Amino acid sequence: MTAETLTLARVKTEIVRAINEAMEHRAEPVDETTDLQALAADSLQIVIIANILEDALKIELDPSLLYAAETVEGLARDILQFSAESF
């Protein structure tokens, strides 16, 4: 899969899945409306989430993108932009 075939909806779905997988011990699952800053993910969780996304989306991802994002949609847009610039 290349950046050209990624869609916003697909990236958002994979973000939610990756966060839920990496932070499986949360009381409530993450969805598209979750405030990502409120998750307070530690650096290991960020790296795990980035690795899951890289595998799922077949892209290279800078984990620092995850620190700056406030929403799932914002992160998805950042990932799409980042992956497009990488090609």
Give an overview of the whole structure:
The protein is mainly alpha-helical and 87 residues long. It is 57% helix and 0% strand. It has helices at 8-22, 43-57, 64-68, 72-86. Helix 1 crosses helix 2 (43-57) and helix 1 crosses helix 4. The chain is globular. It starts with 7 loop residues before the first helix and ends with a helix. The model has no long low-confidence stretch (mean pLDDT 88).
**Helix-strand makeup class:** mainly alpha
The amount of helix comes to: 55-70%
Sheet having the most strands: none
Total of helices: 4
The dominant shape is globular
Strand content: under 5%
- End-to-end separation: 12 Å
Order of helices and strands: HHHH
Radius of gyration: 12 Å
In the predicted model, the low-confidence regions spanning at least 5 consecutive residues are: none
Average pLDDT confidence is: 88
Question: How many DSSP-defined strands?
Answer: 0
